[in-house]
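Weekly sync, protein design subgroup
Attendees: M.S., D.O., the rotation student, P.L. (late)

Item 1: inverse folding check
M.S. brought a backbone from last month's batch and wanted to see whether the design step gives back something sensible before we order anything. D.O. pointed out we never logged the input encoding, so this time it goes straight into the notes. Structure tokens as presented (322 positions):
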């Protein structure tokens, strides 16, 4: 009985949403036609949006944004570029929030049943997780791409909170990766990577259909979590400087040309080989001027399929490639 009531509620909500959005009917007119109160119509519209039956997209294809997208796409040949308009004077915290909202909405058009979504935790992904729009899926799996532990904490609470928000939003199964972000010794990582329980997570990462991540930068206006929460020691920062590191993806570091090979700290990093990001559908979400150099290098290295970026950061990027 309860199942039929829920189905009827869903069908009525979708009917109201179609009348409101497709037929441009006012709530008063819908209420009169269905012989219900206006407040009931409002509740049904809210229900339809909250449950993911309605997705609202705002298209703002200004000439300047279109030119920016063409410039980035033409220079690096990536599949899709989304430049998100933001008020320049609002500051980077607002830029990040608006980019996160856009990314959360866009993700619903990419993610579907039966897929595997790989997520690299961090400040940007945390922001996206707070703006997710509910969507029902079946047999969707979410896998953590890099460990979160360090000498000060396990990191489990921070990383798992992000992934669990995604899992709850999509009714997905989540696979956490309970290992350190960086091992003390490369030999320890190599030994652990032979364990069957760890191999299971690594295999899921390899099978992922979509990867969602950002780019870490040492001096970002809104600091990347790995640089602000005790994951790196002074000797690590010295190594990053010595190796001319400009950023990281899933705590795996890369140089100005986008290469990540023969960087000593990467031998101890828990994140996947960056070749994975070249081969799969990678959605990179970036916000903040301090990430421009890292973004430029990641684009040179073909480390993404899609880019979602705020307009000021995109403009700064274009100024470097012209």
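Designed sequence read out in the meeting:
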């Amino acid at each position: 009985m309860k199942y039929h009531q829920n189905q009827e509620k869903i069908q009525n909500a979708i009917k109201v949403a179609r009348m409101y959005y497709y037929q441009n009917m006012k709530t008063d007119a819908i209420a009169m036609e269905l012989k219900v109160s206006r407040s009931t119509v409002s509740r049904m519209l809210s229900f339809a949006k909250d449950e993911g039956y309605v997705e609202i997209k705002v298209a703002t294809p200004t000439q300047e944004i279109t030119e920016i997208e063409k410039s980035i796409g033409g220079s690096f040949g990536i599949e899709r570029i989304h430049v998100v308009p933001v008020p320049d004077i609002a500051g980077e915290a607002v830029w990040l929030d608006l980019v996160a909202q856009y990314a959360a909405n866009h993700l619903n058009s990419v993610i579907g049943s039966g897929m595997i979504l790989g997520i690299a935790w961090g400040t940007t992904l945390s922001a996206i997780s707070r703006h997710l729009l509910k969507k029902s899926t079946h047999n969707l799996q979410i896998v953590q791409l890099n460990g979160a532990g360090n000498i000060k904490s396990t990191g489990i609470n921070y990383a798992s909170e992000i992934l669990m928000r995604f899992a709850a939003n999509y009714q997905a199964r989540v696979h956490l990766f309970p290992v350190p972000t960086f091992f003390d010794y490369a030999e320890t990582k190599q030994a652990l990577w032979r364990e069957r329980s760890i191999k299971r997570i690594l295999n899921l990462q390899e099978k992922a259909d979509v990867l969602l991540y950002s780019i870490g930068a040492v001096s970002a206006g809104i600091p990347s979590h790995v640089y602000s929460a005790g994951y790196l020691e002074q000797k690590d920062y010295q190594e990053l400087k010595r190796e001319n590191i400009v950023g990281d993806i899933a705590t795996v570091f890369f140089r100005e040309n986008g290469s990540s090979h023969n960087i000593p700290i990467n031998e101890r990093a828990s994140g996947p080989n960056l070749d994975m990001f070249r081969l799969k559908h990678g959605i990179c979400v970036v916000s903040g001027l301090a990430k421009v150099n890292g973004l430029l290098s990641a684009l040179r290295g073909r480390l993404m399929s899609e880019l979602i970026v705020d307009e000021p950061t995109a403009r700064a990027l274009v100024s470097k490639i012209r």
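Discussion: The chain has two domains: 2-50, 63-321. The radius of gyration is 22 Å.
Action: P.L. to compare against the previous round before Friday.
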